[in-house]
What we know:
Helices cover 60% and strands 19% of the residues. It is an alpha+beta fold.
Amino acid sequence: MTKFQLLILLFPLNLLAQTPFQLSEKSLLGLGLEHTPQWDSIEAAYKASLNESQSLDDRFKPELFGKVGYEETRERALFDFIPVWSPVKSAQLGVRQQLQGGVGLSAATGIDQRSASTPNGTFKNVSTSSVRLDLTVDLWKDVFGRLTKAQTQSAKLAKHKAEIEKEIKQKNFSIGLRRTYWALVANNEQLKIYQDLKKISQEQLADARRRQSAGVADAGEVARSEAQVAAREGALLYSQYQKEVLLKNLKNLIPELKDKDIVLEGYNIPQVVESVMACTLIIASKVETPYDFTRYDEVVTLLRQSQAQQQKLASSYDNVDLKFVGGVRTTGIGSRDAGNNLRVGSYGAALDDWQDNNRTGYTAALELNVPFGKGKTKETQEILAQKRFDSEINQTNTNIITTHQQLVRVIKLLTELIEQQKISSSALERRLVVQNRKYREARITVNDLILDQDSLLNSNLSTINTQLEIINTLFDYLAVFTETPCSFNRI
Length: 491
C-alpha cells in the first residue's frame, strides 16, 4: 500500500476526530452527567449516608448460626472414676433475631457424641441431643423498644434527608455547568470586542504610517499606534487564555468532553436576559419567603426531628440496664448398658429419648447492669445533639430567608446598572464617531482617539460582566430555591 493510499484511508478518520462539539446549554446538560466524577461523588456521599440506616435494619434481620467441633485428648483423669472424654464430636445449628420492641429470640438444636474409658467402665459414642428456645426482654433501658425506636426513627430521618440533599446537589451540579457555559458566552463576547478593536487599531497603525510618510504625523504617533496594537493583542491573548481555563474546568467536570474541540453554538443573549427577568418577576411577586420553591425547608424539618431523637438517645446513655433472660430446653441422652462395663449410644437413641420422654427444663434470670462514671459523657452527648443540630438548622434557615430577601434587591440594582451602562455606551459611540472625524481632519491627536476607544471598550465590557453577574446571581438563588417555576430553571 502506497503512502497516498494510506492517507486516503485515514483522511475520514482524521476529519471525524476534528469535528467540533457544538456546545449549548441543552447539549451540555444532555451529556451523560451520571458518569462524571462529581456526579459519582454525590452518589457516593448518598450511599455513605445510607450506611447507618441499612446497618440498623440488619440488626433486626434473622441470623442463622452454627458450630461443628471435634476434640481429642490424651490427658489423664484427676480421679479414676471421672472419665476423660475423647474424642468429642459436636454440632449446633440455630436461628436468632432481635426484635424492635427490645426483645430477642433464638432457637437452636444441637448434638454431642463422646467416648471415654475408666477403670469402672467404658463409654462409646454416648450421645446427647437438645432443642433450646431462648427469650431476652429489656425491662428498663429499652423497654418496649423505646431506644430502638429512637435509633430506627433517627436512621429513617437521616435517609430521607440524604435523599433530598442528593437531589439538591445534583441540581446544583447542573447549575455549576450552566455557570461555566455562560462564563464562556461572556468570554466569547469579550473576544469579539477585542478582535474588533484589534482590527481598528491595526487600521489606525497603517493610517499613522501613511500619515508619517506624507509628513503629516511624526514617529511618536506611529509608536503610540504600535503600542495600541500590542495592547489590543495582549488583551485578546489574555481573554483567549481565560477561555482555555474555562474549557479545562469544563472538561474536568465532564470527562466525555476531554478529547473534543469545543465551539459555542449560536445563542441569543436578549432572549436569555428576557427569560432571566421573567424569572425574577415571579420571585419578586413572593413577598414572603416561598418555601414551596425550595426543599431546604424539608431539610430543616428533618433536622428538628432528628435532634429530638438524638437527645432521647443521649439522655439514656447512663441508664440502668435490666433484662429478663429465659429459656426452654429439652434434652435426650443416647446411652445403654451393653454389658461388660460398656455403655454405648447413638444419635438416634438420643433423639428417641427426648421424643419419647418429657425432658423439658426451664431457665429464668434477671440481668442488671448499673453504669458508673458515664455522667460527663452523657452531658457531652446532650450538648453535642443540641449544638450541632441548632447550628445546621439556623444556618439553613438563614440561608433560605436572606437568599430570597436579597435577590430582588440585587437584581434590581444590577438591572439599573445595565441601563446606565447602555446609556453610557450609546453616548460614547456617538462621541467616537465625532472623534474619528476629528482625527481624520487632524483636529485631535491619536491619544485623544484611543482614550475614547478605551472608554467605549470598558463600558461594553462592563455591560457584559454585569449581565453575567445577573445570571450568576439568579443561579445563586436557584441553588437554594431549586423548585422555582420559571422557564430559566427548566433548561
